[in-house]
Amino acid sequence: MNKDIVCIGAGYIGGPTMAVIAKMNPDRRVVVVDIDERRIAAWNSPDFALPIYEPGLVEVVREVRGRNLFFSTDIKAAVKECDIVFVGVNTPTKMFGRGAGRASDLQYWEATAREIKEWADGDKIVIEKSTLPVRTAAAMEAILNHDARYRFTVLSNPEFLAEGTAVRDLLEPDRVLIGGPQDEAGRAAVAEAVEIYASWVPRERILTTNVWSAELTKLAANAFLAQRVSSINAIAGLCEATGADVDEVARVIGADRRIGPKFLKAGPGFGGSCFKKDVLNLVYLCESFGLHTAAEYWSGVIRMNEHQQERIVSRLFREMFNTLANRKIALFGFAFKADTGDTRETPAGAVARLLAAEHVRLAVTDPKALGNARRDLADLDGVVFEEDEYKAAEGADAVVLMTDWGRYPALDWRRIYGVMRKPALVYDTRNCLDAAALREIGFRVLNVGK
Ligand code: NAD
Ligand code: UDX
User: Is the model's pTM score more than 0.90?
Assistant: First the structure.
């Protein structure tokens, strides 16, 4: 067995994860492959115009690309050459047939299993990096080992990185999780996988479990995080109704060491490619096993999230005298969180659509996600996209801040006030601006949970 690695899927997970594995394992050759030629070309671009934006990623790729990290569309060659195969392809929510709207769509993943089997010319360790429903490894093993000439051992190694902090999360993970079969081949494969990470992660942070625990842990961990966001947003509505301040409430709740301060920031609701998809997947699993009350419990996390975005638009509606038609509203930020260009499931998208339904004239600005915003909102009429925040705000009745980009508090808000229609409203859905300073300038200011 050689130590080289191939990763199938060069997306948000495959790219950064393999870049860091290559950086920390200079003795291993790491090849990242994808069917998307444009994506691979971007990873290989001479000026390092990578297909995704992550702070610190360009620096890592500059260091290792061409040294021991390679990007390619030649899946066949890569699978032949490497004995360790990571699978990081997309597993979106299924939109058709059984489980539509909840279950994972495993078609990309299944195609990958068949490809691995077709091109393999020796025994392989296959490591699930994608987030998958519990017992997917069993299906993968069944496909791979059915009538096979070689032995395939399937491990689950879910990834916990968050976008925007991917490189830091990979370099200093709270934990690495590797699940494997509880037999001799399984234990040997887990030991191989542990070695990859042990070159930089302290061994006590590399946790090993059985495969099913690893698969389920990933869904459960995301569900717990999403549930915290929905819990604080549920309190935010109550704060607005009663005069309490959600940031104060969160600070005090979080001071309890049993609860802790993280993931208690009220806002426009969670976005991103993972939370909604993984909670829906958990709901589907619960239902499949007849656990209907548990399914309903987790569904509530998503219902609360959607309600939060509807509440933001309802409040705007009330504050703008019950008519939004033909008003101009500038959305500051379209990415689902700061420091990423990713707009998958972004709350800004949901809010933009609700506003467009009210015939609002929308101007969208974002420092990294404008290209994706243009694509996401292509079917809406009359939306303008502006690089420059001051231009976006020109003639606007309201600025709705949707993403907590660090640059927004540092903008010249006097200048923004100067170019807006009066009375000028700022709805800071991330509670990240200095509301008192804005009021002094003359703005009306709305926040979430106050
Ligand atoms: P992505 O869409 O950015 O990337 C997936 C890539 O796989 C795409 O480039 C696609 O072209 C490629 N692909 C699909 N089928 C293929 C095939 N048969 N052969 C070769 N390439 C193929 O998705 P992502 O955000 O990287 O997510 C991948 C997985 O990782 C998902 O299961 C997701 O739940 C999980 N995950 C994502 C994150 C995150 O922050 N994005 C975090 C943890 C886990
Ligand atoms: C998440 C998980 O954190 C990560 O472990 C997993 O691997 C992938 O899914 P990600 O979606 O990239 O990562 O970002 P995260 O930082 O978790 O934020 C998700 C969403 O929740 C964002 O829209 C963010 O703005 C929102 N959020 C987060 C809040 O509204 N309040 C908070 O307190 C924290």
Answer: yes
